[in-house]
Amino acid sequence: MAYNTILEILGKEAEELLSHECKTISKEMLHRPGPDYIDRVFVQSNRNPQVLRSLATLFGHGRLANTGYLSILPVDQGIEHSAGASFAPNPIYFDPENIIKLAIEGGCNAVATTFGNLALMSRKYAHKIPFIVKINHNELLTYPNKYDQVLFGSVEEAWNLGAVAVGATIYFGSEESTRQIQEIAEAFERAHELGMATILWCYLRNSNFKKDGVDYHTAADLTGQANHLGVTIQADIVKQKLPTTNGGFTALKFGKTHDKVYSELTSNHPIDLCRYQVANCYMGRIGLINSGGESKGMSDKAEAIRTAIINKRAGGMGLIMGRKAFQRPMNEGVELLHAVQDVYLAKEIDLA
What we know:
The chain has 352 residues and is α/β, with parallel strands linked by helices. The chain has 16 helices and twelve strands. The protein starts with a helix and ends in a 7-residue tail after the last helix.
């Protein structure tokens, strides 16, 4: 997709997103993605050579190979949102082979999905596209529904499936978060011992994070702190929702923050809000990938491109997009994935 096409799709937002210059946290302070990213950041870390090889496999696959950027297809929604809710719009994805085929045809760096999906497809595809095994989930069959991430298998089993990485979710802010932090910190330590990379879905979950009609689950200050907790337990990559607001700590009157977070380190601009998320990932030493969000139909392409531009210009490392891609015919899903990847391939789009 040509740069001019990106401009057309953005429409009136093009100027705001593509001409913005961050005056909050300077791009010069960031460890930016690039072909030499692993050498610059991880070679000096405690990650062993097997982990470095797994990271290189992840970054060296698909249309974004060796750019330092990532495009990942995540399909764990069959558990997280129920199989019916996720796959009814396109029933071919009840079959896990089609999930992997979409990731391959879509030029993704990797496919992230469940133990069950990858176990059935392991011998056929583990050597054709990097596997990321999502090791914990929130199941929605308990009545009344409860929201808790629990382990669905072992790190050893993910390794046996040929995975290059494990993924996990922590619901920071929830009553169960302390247990989840302990479980996933231990799981990530074991994954690194076995030579796999680690990816953490750093999500917030607390009904009290909504106040006066504002949902602070996507506030830059709260999600930034969730990211900081995630990198502390040695996530190699952090997945986070794009920030849509700010001031969660001050509005909810809990935790600790500083006035400069709001007066100097952030602004109302979406790229500045996302940059604060990147800053909390050790200034980009740990890559931030933002999620693509739910499918809304005709507007999906424009929304996905917008999210990719915000992430890239903020200093992020890519997009992890599922429902927008698999809840439509496969050829359209492939086209959407390519459109997002084209943002990261476009040299005209750089750090703000």
